[in-house]
Write a structure and sequence with these properties.
By secondary structure, this protein is mostly beta strands. It has 13 helices and 48 strands. The strands form ten sheets. Strands 36, 37, 38, 39, 40, 41, 42, 43, 44, 45, 46, 47 and 48 form a 13-stranded antiparallel sheet that branches. Strands 2, 3, 5, 6, 9, 11 and 12 form a seven-stranded mixed sheet that branches. The radius of gyration is 45 Å and the shape is flat. The termini are far apart.
Length: 856
């Protein structure tokens, strides 16, 4: 009996420092405590009635055998009678809180010899002590189990008592990785991998366990722990073996060491719901423990994309993998500290083979297989189980790949070309018209296996083909183009997508599928090409115009001087070639319908280019007769009625030369094969451009009542480093373009020109001034602009070319609509907001108001 014993006492020190943690009670009312598994002892003592305690002390002094406070301790498997495995005890002779070699396990007499009975089948050992010390060693525990600790005087009552005197204790161990897997689900080599982390180098180097460069590897660490800490931090370390010295020479010694090439800290344990509890545990224990003890998974992604710097040979390399866990532990003085604890170690072998190597191997295997299959001899009088055609159903057309003829002939290899990317694979359907009623083996009849199959060494998985649907006479295939995204120049710099810049024969990726009947067993070879489309654009022009002239501007304000300076700059540029040209080169790659832009744009004094522009412009002036006219602003106003006294500017620009080229893979219209194709376009945009403006503000200055207001406004704008404007303008522009095509139906596109006349009005004001902030004695810049313009245009288009009907000229007239543009922006202190040149359509454009084609 435990009469006189009230409860077990746990020291406040162990509770306050977190060495022991109280858990919720079991359903039977028993208390549960968790003990940190770090090897530190916890002392348990007893609270007793004072009268009983003194009586027990007297019996002990009188050396009455079996007298004193006794303890039992055992591991609980279930809460029924006999469900505890009882532990033995040892005598701690030197009181150093551990069992030494000279300290024997003590086998006390069974409980029934003390009390005459053993109510609950304790059948175990006990120790007679006032206090006991318990601990859980610093080791991981696969699954926790409750242990029962109870003090008693005559016999233990266990947890069956209405007022239990004992307690349950459970070890709180640090997270333990009980299994580590290597996972690859999304490999560019179209394979899947899930293996335990190899424990030896030899096991790691087996072919099915090798990871390849370019793959995304996931280390899946499965962890078991009590009270999963979400912030538990793990470290994965990958070391490379380095050998020093040699086996040759006097006292030759080769020493192995490890150099860390990858280290990553991760956290984020995710609980798993797998059933891992022992069948020996009863439902109540499992229900209780499963609230706190979990198994979890930690995913550690590794990008296997960086080859070691010392990788010289095309051979696989084996690395040493260590997983560590940073956790809280307690020293002998109960001082917190951080400690690295190795949890699991293994080996990782990375093969040298990368994406490019694997594709080369696959192409070679496909070629060899198709060549080995040999020629197909068409035999209309052969086996009755056959088909007479094989067709491919592409996105928008049907192609006959094979057709049986009346006379026996040898068949060239059956091939089909596709163009696609790796985001949206190509859907290809192959079908046959089976005639299998007389199939002797019944292998090819309806309801049997499909006549389409993949060779054993070139399975659909290995070729990266996804079978969407298959029946006995047709098959739907999803076929991607596997872009080599890990291609490096000199083994250092990733150059994707420029490894597809030249579109050469190495780009093709080859696949094969067999079509088998008793008469025919024909390989269909599928050649897949990348959907990359390259576009390059070169544009060059002059920053300054060819000529700039003005007339009729008042000299009493700054507008005359400004226009005069613009005219002088244009003249000096033409004479001394001291202006600037702008140069733009852009390259664009489109892959998977996603565009990647690479461009260079700058302005610089390049005399050779400016000389070329001047020469081109002078040549065009001679062709157009402009060299004799030499248009100037004064000439225009003098000849146009009503403009003789209007303030007017005329600007003539140099041509802008643009060269546009693009190339890609396309389908030949006649034989449906995939070919390299492209085009080159040469354009002058513009070839000729002239802009004339009437300054309405300058016009108003000739009206005396308005002159003072305008002069005041100009003076204010000048002081604020700004400007005001209100202009009517007209722009005349002629563009010229021509196109040359390669490997396409048309080799030359008609030479086209476009003449556009644009009329518009613009008004606005802007300032840029320094503002002093008095409170802070600092300066800030204020910039603002409010402007608007409206435009309408007419374009005359002309084409000259030839087609099946002969030589032709085509003319058309387009109306450009009416469009308003608004700019409203402000920049001050930290404020930078507004819109710039935002377009608003007033009247929609109307192309082809007139269109006429004339043949000669």
């Amino acid at each position: 009996m435990s009469k006189g014993i009230n409860r077990i006492i746990i020291s406040d020190e162990h509770i306050s420092n977190g060495q022991i943690i109280k858990f919720p009670q079991l359903l039977n009312g028993c208390e549960v405590y968790g003990l940190i598994a770090n090897g530190n002892w916890v002392t348990l003592s007893v609270e007793m009635d004072e009268k009983v305690f003194l009586d027990v002390e007297d019996k002990v002094k009188n050396k009455q055998i079996h007298s004193g406070i006794k303890w039992v301790y055992g591991k609980v498997y279930n809460l029924q009678k006999g469900g505890i495995s009882w532990h033995g005890w040892y005598t701690d002779t030197n009181r150093n809180n551990k069992k030494d070699e000279n300290e024997e396990w003590v086998n006390n007499k069974p409980v029934e010899q003390i009390s005459k009975i053993d109510l609950h089948n304790v059948q175990g050992n006990y120790t007679i002590q006032k206090t006991i010390q318990i601990k859980f060693d610093n080791k991981p525990y696969d699954t926790p189990a409750l242990s029962w600790v109870e003090p008693f005087l005559i016999h233990p009552e266990l947890h069956f008592s209405k007022k239990p005197k004992g307690i349950f204790i459970v070890p709180i161990a640090e997270p333990k990785i009980y299994r580590t897997d290597l996972l690859i689900n999304n490999s560019p080599f179209d394979r899947k991998l899930q293996i335990p982390l190899p424990k030896t180098e030899k096991e790691s180097q087996e072919n099915e366990n090798v990871v390849y460069y370019g793959e995304n590897l996931i280390i899946s660490a499965h962890v078991c722990t009590l009270l999963i800490p979400e912030s538990a931090e793990f470290t994965v370390i990958i070391d490379q073996k380095v050998q020093h010295g040699s086996n040759s020479g006097f006292l030759g010694v080769k020493i192995d060491s490890y150099q860390t090439i990858y280290e990553k800290k991760v956290n984020g344990l995710k609980p798993e719901n797998d059933n891992f509890w022992s069948e020996d545990l009863d439902y109540e224990l499992v229900s209780y423990l499963s609230q706190y003890f979990k198994r979890a998974e930690l995913l550690i992604p590794l990008a296997i994309d960086k080859k070691p710097e010392d990788q010289k040979e095309k051979t696989k390399r084996t690395f040493f993998v260590t997983l560590k866990h940073i956790y809280q532990a307690y020293s002998a003085t109960n001082t917190d500290f951080k400690k690295l604890y190795p949890i699991q170690q293994g080996y990782l072998t990375i093969g040298y083979t990368d994406m490019e190597n694997l594709l080369e191997i696959q192409n070679k295997e496909v070629d060899e297989y198709v060549e080995k299959a040999g020629d197909v001899l068409l035999q209309p009088n052969g086996e009755p189980c056959h088909y007479t055609w094989i067709k491919a159903h592409k996105e928008d057309e049907e192609i006959t790949l094979f057709e049986e003829k009346k006379e026996g002939i040898k068949l060239d290899p059956i091939e089909i070309g596709l163009i696609t990317g790796d985001v949206n694979p190509y859907l290809l359907t192959l079908s046959t018209n089976l005639k299998t009623e007389e199939c002797k083996t019944q292998q090819h009849t309806k309801g049997a296996d499909s006549v389409f199959y993949f060779p054993a060494k070139l399975s659909s998985e290995k070729q990266g083909i996804n079978i969407q649907k298959i029946d006995y006479s047709s098959i739907d295939l999803l076929i991607p183009y596997k872009y080599i995204r890990d291609h490096k120049a000199l083994g250092m710099v990733n150059i994707f997508p420029f490894n597809y810049f030249w579109l050469n024969e190495k780009d093709v990726q080859k696949h094969v599928v067999m079509v088998d009947t008793c008469r025919y067993n024909i390989p269909v070879k599928i050649n897949v090409y990348p959907d990359v489309n390259w576009e390059i654009k070169f544009e060059v022009g002059s920053v300054l115009p060819q000529t700039y002239s003005h007339t009729n501007f008042p000299t009493a304000n700054g507008s005359f001087e400004q226009h005069q300076q613009d005219a002088i700059k244009a003249g000096q540029n033409r004479r001394w070639i001291n202006g600037e040209v702008y140069f733009e080169l852009s390259l664009q790659a489109e892959i998977n319908n996603i565009k990647r832009q690479y461009s260079v744009h700058y302005e610089q004094k390049i005399k050779s280019i400016l000389k070329s522009l001047i020469s081109i412009k002078e040549g065009l002036d001679k062709l157009c007769g402009l060299d004799k006219i030499k248009p100037k602003a004064r000439t225009i106003t003098s000849k146009v009625p009503g403009m003789k006294k209007l303030p007017f500017t005329l600007q003539i620009d140099y041509p802008v030369i643009s060269i546009l080229g693009n190339w890609n893979y396309g389908y030949n219209s006649s034989n449906k094969k995939v070919v390299r194709q492209g085009q080159i376009s040469l354009g002058f945009t513009p070839l000729i451009k002239a802009t004339g403006k009437i300054d309405l503000i300058a016009c108003a200055e000739y009206y005396p009542p308005a002159r003072r207001f305008i002069q005041a406004a100009r003076w204010a704008a000048e002081k604020l480093n700004g400007d005001i404007w209100f202009n009517l303008y007209a722009i005349g522009e002629i563009d010229l373009q021509g196109h040359l095509y390669f490997n396409q139906e048309k080799n030359v596109e008609p030479l086209s020109s476009k003449t556009t006349v644009t009329l518009g009005v613009e008004l606005g004001a802007k300032i840029a001034s320094d503002i002093e902030e008095v409170s802070f004695q600092a300066e800030s810049t204020f910039k603002g602009e409010l402007s608007a313009k409206g435009e309408t245009s007419l374009s005359l288009n002309a084409k000259a070319g030839f087609d099946d009907k002969g030589i032709y000229n085509e003319f058309s007239l387009d109306f450009g609509g009416v469009v308003a543009y608004l700019t409203a922006k402000v920049k001050m202190w930290r404020i930078d907001a507004g819109i710039e040149n935002k377009a608003f359509t007033i009247v929609d454009e109307k192309p082809d108001l007139f269109k006429q084609t004339l043949y000669f």
